[in-house]
Design a protein that fits this description.
globular; alpha/beta; about 40% helix; six-stranded mixed β-sheet
Length: about 550
């Protein structure tokens, strides 16, 4: 008589492990997504509680894990919208709620577009039995898809919006050195991978029901003690935290005098007397204490409100300061190709190098003016939608075509005007053109006492580590600071405080591994996630 064979304990254990974990019910998934989206902004300045980035992403992924793609799109939109409503609240300071909400909706749509693919990763990619399950393709795919979303939203549309990338939350974290190896996109990838890995660790089955009480269980049978989970996660996190900085090679030193005029009138929305901003920066430059052997004077974006091209008095002030310090001035003003009232005249946001007795010898015109801030794309269309808001931007900047590397007295400076610092392409262009020190003149007067200035400065610090270059940021109202290639801060000025500092910085001409990869690593990581999902035909059924 034939009898049916009972499955062995090992077979039952493996079957249990392969069975997918039931996804959260939609109310719980929404709650997890909202909680993650509310916690995530706390990782960024001004608070800068960097562990919140991992907690937030873990909760967001938990909410989407195992969901249907259409439900994941809704969860993604809600998560992205809530995150950005908090993260970029500063955009509403002067312009009101409409641009703020419109921007956040756009970014939320990017999350909505990416999350169905993340949901597909959780449903298609097979689980593996035992302790190796979290090390499979699933965390790699999830991290790659997150990186893909960040890459696309940072460039599309109208040049994108590169704010709120996960890596930008880690300027004070022990993982900061990793960016010198794999860049900002690579760090975002590693962060999401770690969160997805932790989520899979948490979902490993705790006990196989057919094993008799008291029987020792082994990892290959699908059981991992909680201590093992914590130990594995702690080991990997510790290895990442201990990752060394890519080595730098100094070729010399340079002394830079950075000036902060404390000029709220540099804002589009705060009026000031003619020449007030120029005078404030000139006065703080003359009042600087440490002025010996200065190689360059750095003034912020918007530091000159009376153009030396058209005012002899302004040109005279420039000459006087450059002669007094025996150093050129890298200042900023609006330049134009013709008459101000001529409709064919082009305007540029220009950082120019002024040499005493010679005037402006070279300069950089901002290559990527901010859409809806420094110019309005498709102006007629948007004017019909919001005439009052679009009408505030009367002067439109033309994208510059000159290199963002300026040479002065044998040193090549990479120059990034304001939001240039979040543009990966401009960073790579400067390094490729031989930049030895990075300079970030910026005007934060439009954002008052909001988180914007701290968020921008955090990205500047990350760029110093990523490129292996010393960096100086000078702001009209703050914050201004100087960083060494390892991210160490050596000088700083608090916001809305007039003053200056002199920073002696190393010059370097080597290439970090992050700069060596260029955009290729980002493309590979983003493409990896998409390929893993699209080439996995088997769909995991919901329990």
């Amino acid at each position: 008589m034939l009898t049916q064979r009972s499955p062995s304990l090992t077979e039952h254990s493996l079957a249990t492990v392969r069975h997918p974990t039931r996804p959260l019910a939609m109310p719980a998934a929404i709650a997890a997504s909202l909680a993650g989206a509310l916690i995530l902004p706390l990782a960024f300045p001004d608070r800068g509680w960097w562990p919140c980035a991992f907690i937030g992403v873990f909760l967001i992924l938990w909410g989407v894990r195992g969901q249907r793609p259409r439900d994941a799109a809704s969860l993604g939109f809600v998560s992205g919208l809530v995150f950005y409503l908090s993260h970029v609240l500063w955009t509403s300071l002067f312009l009101g709620p409409v641009p703020w909400i419109a921007l956040c909706v756009l970014m939320g749509l990017w999350w909505a577009a990416a999350f169905p693919f993340i949901a597909l990763a959780y449903r298609r990619l097979p689980s593996r039995a035992g302790m190796l399950q979290p090390l499979g393709a699933l965390p790699l795919a999830v991290a790659g898809l997150w990186t893909l979303r960040e890459a696309l939203s940072s460039t599309v549309p109208y040049g994108g919006f590169s704010w709120g990338r996960l890596a930008q939350s880690q300027s004070d974290a022990p993982f900061v050195e990793i960016v010198s190896w794999i860049g900002l996109s690579g760090l975002s990838f590693v962060m999401v991978w770690l969160c997805a890995f932790a989520l899979e660790l948490a979902h490993l089955p705790k006990r196989t029901p057919l094993v008799p009480k008291g029987t020792p269980l082994k990892p290959e049978r699908g059981f991992v003690e909680p201590l093992w989970r914590l130990g594995v996660f702690a080991l990997i996190a510790s290895l990442l935290a201990a990752w060394p900085l890519w080595p730098t090679h100094e070729t010399g030193t340079v002394r830079i005098l950075a000036v902060q005029g404390d000029t709220p009138g540099a804002s589009y929305f705060i009026s000031s007397e003619r020449g007030e901003i120029l005078t404030a920066h000139a006065d703080q430059t003359i009042a600087a204490e440490d002025t010996s052997d200065i190689d360059l004077v750095l003034w912020p974006e918007g530091s000159v409100d009376v153009s030396p091209w058209y005012s002899e008095a302004s040109a005279g002030i420039h000459d006087q300061i450059a002669e007094y310090l025996d150093a050129p001035i890298l200042a900023n003003t609006v330049t134009m190709t013709g008459d101000y009232n001529d409709p064919d005249t082009e305007f540029f946001n220009t950082q120019y190098l002024w040499v005493a007795g010679e005037g402006p010898v070279t300069g950089y015109d901002k290559a990527h003016p901010i859409p809806f801030g420094e110019y309005v794309p498709h102006r007629d269309f948007y004017m019909a939608l919001a005439p009052d808001l679009v009408g505030l931007i009367q002067r439109e900047y033309t994208p510059g075509t000159r290199s963002n590397v300026i040479a002065s007295e044998g040193v090549r400076y990479g120059v990034f005007i304001c939001y240039d610092i979040v543009d990966d392409a401009l960073i790579r262009a400067a390094i490729d053109d031989g930049a030895e020190v990075l300079l970030t003149p910026t005007n934060n007067a439009d954002f008052g006492y909001t988180d914007e200035s701290g968020q921008q400065l955090a990205t500047a610090r990350l760029r110093a580590v990523e490129t292996g270059r010393a960096l100086v940021q000078a702001s009209t109202v703050g914050w201004s600071a100087a960083y060494l290639p390892d991210g160490s801060e050596i000088a700083a000025l608090d916001w809305y405080t007039p003053g200056s500092f002199t920073a002696e910085l190393p010059t370097t001409d080597h290439t970090t591994l992050a700069m060596f990869w260029g955009k290729h690593l980002e493309v590979f990581l983003a493409g990896l996630g998409l390929v893993l999902v699209l080439t996995s035909p088997k769909i995991r059924k919901r329990a």
